[in-house]
Specification:
By secondary structure, the protein is mostly helical. It has one domain. The protein contains 7 helices and no strands. The protein has helices at about 5-25, 25-40, 55-70, 75-100, 105-140, 145-165, 165-190.
């Protein structure tokens, strides 16, 4: 099987972008991917056609709504950040593997775990730090704003990953850097009070 470098680069962009979006919200990017695959905008790798089935789309839609809503519950948002870390890495790897159509299975999963899992983990870590900074500086009152920005960024990055993959990767780098800077600034302001 000969690998087309352009197709591989495009698949990597889609995969890493979707994985990063999983770092903001786990199910929204998988829902977007399933819809895009159903509309035949994104080809899926062998064994991943189930992502575009009606039961999977219904499950992703319900899970997306529940996840977004749960982040608006004051004490639950921080608890979800802890539980969502490993789940985001797994979802990121799954999203990446599902679009890597040009690779043999062993390489496909290796790239998905290293690239997709890492991208999701970095974004999840940055958002957890941002929420921690928000909780520390506002007593949790700013967390609904953080939750809103997170799900909106998840949707934006997922759509960009599907439509303009390389732009999604660049947007991801900018978003993570901005989140990191905001979290550091918030924690620095809090330190003297401690």
């Amino acid at each position: 099987m000969e690998v087309d470098p352009r197709e591989l680069l495009l698949s990597l962009g889609v995969g890493v972008g979707l994985a990063a979006a999983c770092g903001f919200r786990i199910f929204l990017p998988l829902f977007a991917l399933g819809l895009a695959a159903r509309a035949e905008w994104v080809p899926l790798a062998d064994g991943f056609a189930w992502l575009a089935t009606t039961p999977a789309l219904a499950a992703f839609a319900v899970a997306t709504a529940l996840e977004i809503g749960a982040y608006y519950v004051p004490w639950l948002d921080n608890a979800l950040d802890v539980a969502a870390g490993p789940a985001a890495v797994a979802a990121g790897a799954l999203a990446s593997a599902s679009v890597l159509t040009e690779l043999p299975p062993l390489l496909q999963w290796t790239v998905a775990l290293v690239g997709g899992g890492t991208a999701a983990g970095i974004v999840k870590g940055a958002t957890a730090l941002l929420r921690l900074g928000s909780t520390a500086t506002t007593g949790g009152a700013g967390n609904p704003v953080v939750a809103t920005v997170e799900w909106m960024l998840s949707a934006l990055v997922a759509v960009l990953a599907i439509l303009v993959p390389l732009l999604a990767v660049l947007a991801l780098v900018a978003i993570v850097y901005a989140g990191y800077r905001l979290a550091r600034r918030a924690l620095r302001r809090r330190e003297p009070a401690l």
